[in-house]
Amino acid sequence: MSLSKIEIITGMSKLPNLKSVLSKAGVRGMTVMQVLGCGIEKGTREYEMEGEYEMELLPKQQINIVVETTKVNEIIEVVKQELYTGHIGDGKIFTYHLDNAIRVRTGDEGLDAL
User: Fold this and answer.
1) What is the pTM of this model?
2) At 81, is the secondary structure helix, strand, or coil?
């Protein structure tokens, strides 16, 4: 069975609800980091989009989860529905294929390591 990593970057206020929907979708673990960043909008607010602005890094959260590859599309849909507001700053989702996962304590590998 193959594994994939889903990386979600979104605003600081989104974690409680996102954590809840991911848990209901069968996600068994996650790593959350506070990060700074911006996208193509360069950290500006929606109403400030005119003119040239220097890039500003805004506080964000990066949520990493590892799941069976067959569940990736389902989980992405759940995340998109939860994060969508239609405004700048809803977030980004990145997916990666993983070769393996290893649980150090037991030596379990692959899906068993999750």
Assistant:
1) 0.86
2) helix
